[in-house]
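Run: sequence + guanosine-5'-monophosphate -> complex structure.
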Amino acid sequence: MKPGLLVVVSGPAGVGKGCIVRKAMETMNCIVLSISATSRPPRPNEIEGVNYFFKTREQFEEMINNNKLIEWVEYCGNYYGTPKDFVLSEIEKGNVVILEIEVEGALNVRKMFPDCVLCFIIPPDFQELENRLRGRATENEEAIQRRLKRAKEEFSLIEKYDYVILNDTLEKAVSRFTSIVEAERMKTRRNNEIIEKFKNI
Ligand code: 5GP
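>> structure
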């Protein structure tokens, strides 16, 4: 039985977290993505249950009160949170569960699951990030400025993460990310069962 693993992927809006994780899932079939709940309204291309579970603020607060979330935050005026049941059951199955979440949530996850792996994705430079965010054309100028400001705040916390992954090209970033997942799964402390078997030969 392979050990389950919780991997948190953070990085500023527009850095390409989603693309990296989706590509990684194509090459490693043990990777599953946790779908977050949010009170943010869906963007035109977003699908319920695929990108997020879209909730009203009241529904989200009900999830908080019923202890249905591992962590939650208020980010740029909206609630975001990680549903608990999916994460716990997938880890139990031995899968690698990815949480694509922002920094405050990531640091809360680390407190609850000290064994999780925290990865931070960085762009080649700040201008490139701004270009990508504008290229996405899904937000107005005010929202873009808010996200850029938030990106600067998040960069100041990179050292709290275990790994920093440069997204210069998608292919290289995916390879860096999957190497980390593979290596973390091979850590001796995650493989006690196999080790015991060999010790007793
Ligand atoms: P967006 O509105 O661009 O989809 O997401 C905004 C930010 O919220 C991103 O940094 C994203 O990673 C983060 N986020 C998405 N889901 C969650 C979650 O469940 N918990 C936390 N803490 N952050 C989340």
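>> summary
The longest strand covers residues 69-75. The beta strands are 5-10, 31-33, 37-38, 53-54, 69-75, 78-83, 96-100, 117-122, 163-166.
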